[in-house]
Structures are given as structure tokens and as C-alpha cells.
Specification:
single chain, 133 residues, alpha/beta, Rossmann fold
Amino acid sequence: MTNTTEFQNVKVMVIDDSKTIRRTAERLLQKAGCDVITAIDGFAALSMITDHKPDLIFVDVMMPRLDGYQTCALIKHNHIFKTTPVIMLTSKDGLFDRARGRIVGSDQYLTKPFTKDELLDAVRHHVPQAVIQ
């Protein structure tokens, strides 16, 4: 059972062109106490990341304009955000896709549809305890 204060100091960004996925992730994360920022694509997200400085970023692989791989690579190549965990969200679960995610610096790969437990476990695993408490 997740209480609503477990992640009260955690700022999470969800980048996905699907309104349904954004809303689902946002709702699940907010119920756990996260402060959630959403973006519809990589371009929108990049300026928001600088403004909000999230503790963790979930990014969809397949997006128009700037896909998840490109977005992750840009985040990880920025000296300020290179240590920010980036978790790829995708319906593509092949070995090649996972390898490509690792190459651009992703910290984890979550397959859609994800469960509440998978989402919250990713936050627990990647966000330092100092931030969570």
C-alpha cells in the first residue's frame, strides 16, 4: 500500500505524446505524493527540464519531432542533468530497442502498459533516499 506522502519531495517528469499515458502516469505518481511535470514531446520537455530540474524523467521512445532516444541523449549529454535518471517508456521490448536505450544513457526500460507498481518501483530504485525522505 502506497501512502500519499511516500514521494512527497520527489519531482518527476513524464514525456509522452499520448495524453492517456501522460494522464495515467501523472495520476499514479501524484497519488504517491510526487510533484509531476508533463510534456508532449522532447522539444517541449527540454526547456521544462531546465526550469523544473526533475529528480527522475520518464520518456516515451516513439514521439514526433524528437524521439525518446534523442531526448535521452540530449539530457545525458548536459553536464547539469547527466546524472538525472531517465527511464524509457515503450511498447517496443526487443533486445535492439533496449540496447539502443542503454547506448543513449537510459537507466531503465519500462514496457507499456506499465503497472502502478512498476512505475513506483522505478521511482524507489532511481531516486536517492535523501530526496524521498
